[in-house]
Amino acid sequence: MGRSLKKGPYVDQKLLKKVLKLKAEGKEGPIKTWARDCTITPEMVGMSFLVHQGKDFVLVKVREEMVGHKLGEFAPTTKFFRHGGKKQEEIERRAAQKEAEKLKEKMGQ
Question: Would the pTM count as exceeding 0.90?
Fold first, then answer.
């Protein structure tokens, strides 16, 4: 469930202050932040942020389509390794064979 419309979007004031300061100075460096819950505003478009993901920081470059979303949405906190077992190995083997066939076709042309 989203935030109430009468409250408006949550924007971390310290982060907004840094954004406005960098825009006024005309600098382009990334802003390091732990505020994953901060809503992306139009002032942030074109800037880059280093968003904390629990262990280290992920570079997020803000585009116009991201306005209204949270910074944390673009910095995943978990890694997907793969499902285990024979079935996964078989899927990977087939994918490797298809790639090899595509390479042979390209080399043959």
Answer: no
